[in-house]
Amino acid sequence: MKFSTLLGGAVVVVMAAGASYHFVPSIQTTVNPYLPWAPPAGNIDVVSASPAAPAAGNGGAGSTRRAGGNGGNASNASNSGGSARQGGGRGGGRNGGGTAVPVSVAVAQTNDVPMHKTAVGFITSPATVIVRPQINAIMTEQHVKDGQLVKKGDLLFVLDDSDLQSQLAHDNATLVKDEATLTNAQAEADRSAGLLKTGSTTQSAADLANANAKTAAATVKADQSLVANDKAHLAYAKITAPIDGRLGAVQVTPGNLVSTTSTTGLVTITQMQPLEASFSLPEADLPFLKSALGAPTPTAVTATITGATTPTATGALDFVDSNVDTTSGTVKVSAQFDNSTPTLWPGQYVQLDVAAGSMKAATVIPTVAVQAGQSGSYVFVVKPDHTTEIRQVTVALDYGDMTAIGSGLQPGEQVVVEGQSRLATGTQVTVVPQTQQAAAASTKAQS
User: Counting Cβ atoms within 10 Å, is residue 358 exposed (0-12), middle (13-18) or buried (19+)?
Assistant: First the structure.
């Protein structure tokens, strides 16, 4: 069988048995821009002819009958013995024959819709320390390994302190000697002062004795300072963690000489709790950010790592830069996360959502009900007579699997969430139960 177009728009279907079906379009149809083209429905002229006789209307003797119109059954052709298929009426849509198309629907609800400011940012640590030696010495002990979690004060490395111990012993001995000298000088100054009162010595001798005592006292103080310095350097031989955090790769192993001039250091410690997320928002969001910083309760910020379908961590907005970047028209923002699990990692890129209030009394439907067309977004609305209507809508906000409609739809109207592919304006439908996924979306719209 094949279709041929005749002058005037008529279509002839040539059958293998020699019969032909002559379609005469008598009903003007409107093409749905959202559906593929389908032959227009109309009255059908059935022309039956044998191979030996010309078709009716061409001078032949074949008999002709008119088939039923919209949705009607065509009568059998007299000589071909074939039958025409059921004509598709307007009410039948793409399903044909007037049969109702099964669809699942959801009712548009009125809900408050949460609003968010979104951005892509990266995780940073508020404290990162490169551990460097404060003395030049040989490393003798290593008490940590790569990637280990440490607490402030934990012992990391031990350096050779034999030279420091020797220097401390020497300076302690010097201190003892000078303290004895001070005791003798002080006694001599006291005797000179007594003799001066009785006239048994001169003033110059008394002054000299007093000066010697002060000199001895100053020497003792210098010795005490040296001893304290020795003890401090001796403490540097045991290197401890200055902060809580996670170690990086250990750069030096026991047996190596470590130096205070090293640029790489011994190891890096990165604070893991809490962490911060740095990101930027448009300058237009600055009024919201300023009010959020001054709010009595912290503004919630969620972070979602790459590949995750749900937020990875929840924190709070804690910083807005004092200047707007004039080159990009954005302002730098940061949020703090406890990261107690921990799920975030310094340097990691994340999707950030900043809670920005809510859209009050919005019309909400499942996102699966919203279709995309050449003229924008639209939905199939099921009318009270169980026919469908294509309705252009304006999407105000998407959140999760729900969509807030700005215009074009009223609360309480039914929209199709399953079965849209077979629909057009005026299609007769029958409502069937939703699948588990669509039912979950509809339930969420009502909550």
Answer: middle
From the CB of residue 429, how many other CB atoms can be counted at a distance below 10 Å?
24
Give the whole-angstrom CA distance, residue 304 versus residue 123.
Answer: 11
Tokens representing residue 141 in the block: 């002990």
| Residues in a beta bridge with 64 | 47
Q: Residues 117, 356: contact at Cβ < 8 Å?
A: yes
289-347 tens-digit pLDDT = 998 988 889 999 999 999 998 999 999 999 999 999 999 999 999 999 999 988 999 99
**In whole angstroms, how large is the CA radius of gyration of the chain?**
46
**Residue 179 shares a structural domain with residue 67:** no
3-state secondary structure of 97: coil
Hey, what amino acid is at 212? N
Residues sharing a CB contact under 8 Å with residue 272, sequence separation 6 or more, in sequence order: 125, 149, 244, 245, 246, 339, 342, 346
Which residues lie below 8 Å from residue 387, measured CB to CB, with a gap of 6+?
91, 426, 427, 428, 429
pTM of the full structure:
0.59
Find the domain containing 233 and state its range.
132-268
Residue whose token pair is 């005469």 = 24
Distance CA 143, CA 156 (A): 5
Cβ proximity of 139 and 157 under 8 Å: yes
User: For the chain, percent helix, then strand, then coil, each to nearest 5?
Assistant: 20, 35, 40
- The answer to whether the CB of 156 falls within 8 A of the CB of 250 is no
Shared domain for 149 and 245, answered yes or no, is yes
- The encoded tokens of residue 346 equal 């310094």
CATH number at residue 287: 2.40.30.170
pLDDT tens-digit profile of 56-68?
344 443 333 343 3
Q: CA 380 to CA 371: how far, in whole Å?
A: 8
Q: Is the pLDDT of residue 415 over 90?
A: yes
Partnered with residue 245 across adjacent β-strands are 150
Cis peptide before 411 (omega within 30 of 0): no
